[in-house]
Amino acid sequence: MKLLSIVIPIYNEEEILETEVKSIINEMNNRKFEKYEIFLVENGSTDNTKNIAKELSEDFQNIKMISLKTSNYGRAIKDGILRCNGDNVAIFNIDFWDVDFLITSINYLLSGESDIVLGSKVMSESEDTRSLLRRFITKNFNLFLKLFFDSGGVDTHGLKLFRKNIIINIVKKCITDRELFDTEFILRSQMGGLRIKEIPVICEEKRKSTTGVLARVPSTIIDIVRLFYNIKIKYE
């Protein structure tokens, strides 16, 4: 089996980082995963997250860690994809991960049925226990993407698995590097004809968001305008 990289952006996660990373390792080992790495991308944390991540990388051979100077979710994911070592790459959040998703998704990749697998929080079979506000935002954001970007309504934020070699050039083209980064590379993948499969997931809110949802609105609007111009009008 090819090496699997699990890229996890982390920011101010000192309360749950060690527990969640060790839980992922236990789950991976219980499911007999052998060739994998957990690639932690710390970005601008102001608490003890960086030190905890460094200690984990020293204690576990299959944990890698890099650190960025500023807080930037999209940049963390992008750098993780570009610098991780795996042939297949999964994107997890430290408070939202699912090894069952990996098992199902890998089968879709191996069968040749899809190039990218997304974990959807909005499918009828999914369970989303997050706050009403966050569910409302997700549902309406997906609707917005469907109307203005012809996305088909896919859930672009959340769990992902893909082959690195087919996504790498798309990732390098992305112009956004904040909250819209993973949305952009999924939209660009669709426009490039890649096969995308959505599967249901269970999404539980393990802790409140480390960055305020409403505080991200201005920068997200700016990036939406930039994105629309570049991939719908200019298309580059």
Please describe what this structure looks like:
- This protein is of the alpha/beta class and 236 residues long.
- It has a single domain (4-233), classed as Spore Coat Polysaccharide Biosynthesis Protein SpsA, Chain A, CATH 3.90.550.
- Helix content is 44%, strand content 18%.
- It has eight helices and nine strands.
- It has helices at residues 17-30, 49-59, 73-83, 99-110, 132-149, 164-173, 181-191, 217-233, and strands at residues 4-10, 36-43, 63-68, 88-91, 116-120, 127-128, 160-163, 196-200, 202-203.
- The protein has a seven-stranded mixed sheet with strand order 3-2-1-4-7-5-8, sandwiched between helices.
- Strand 2, helix 2 (49-59) and strand 3 (63-68) form a beta-alpha-beta unit.
- The longest helix is centred in the middle third of the chain and has 18 residues, at 132-149.
- It starts with a strand and ends with a helix.
- The mean pLDDT is 89.
